[in-house]
Amino acid sequence: MKCPVCQNEMVEKDFGGIKVDFCENGCKGIWFDWFELSKLDEKTEGAGEALKEALGCQSEKKERKNPVDCPKCGIPMHEHKYQSSKEVNVDECYNCGGFFLDAGELRAIRDNFMSDKEREAYAQKLAGDVPEFVKAQEDLDREKVRIRAIKGLTKFLRLKS
Questions:
Q1: Which of 8, 36, 96, 112 satisfies CB 3.0 to 4.6 Å to 87 for a cystine?
Q2: Over the stretch 121-153, which tens digit does the pLDDT of each residue have?
Q3: Dist. CA 20–CA 28, nearest whole Å
Q4: How many structural domains are present in the chain?
Q5: Distance of alpha carbon 96 from the chain centroid
Q6: pTM
């Protein structure tokens, strides 16, 4: 497989039971097939010299004008914050579910990994910054109160068996 950034041939490496494609002779990027990244995004996951080597690579990511193309599907990938690490942008293929990480991004993800509780709080903070979401949440809360009131008022109308 060709690296989507530098077009060098990627080499399959074993990161402790998870086989990934590593741009060993180029930009040091890593390709993760569907669900592989979630098995290596915490510091306690994975093992071996290949993982140690990848974690030792320094970040040299440059701003790109155009998205990189998925090495599997050939379609443009989408850059966004990784779900468990609000500090790191990753490239994801929405077609095959693969992720491409530039050199240093795996280490950054592992260093900034958020627990489920932290992730929920972060998501709530982001949602709270969107006025449309706040209004929709308020409307939903008012509707719940209204439904409870209607149920209470019509309780006597229900037939008892």
A1: 112
A2: 777 777 777 788 888 888 999 999 999 888 887
A3: 12
A4: 2
A5: 14
A6: 0.71
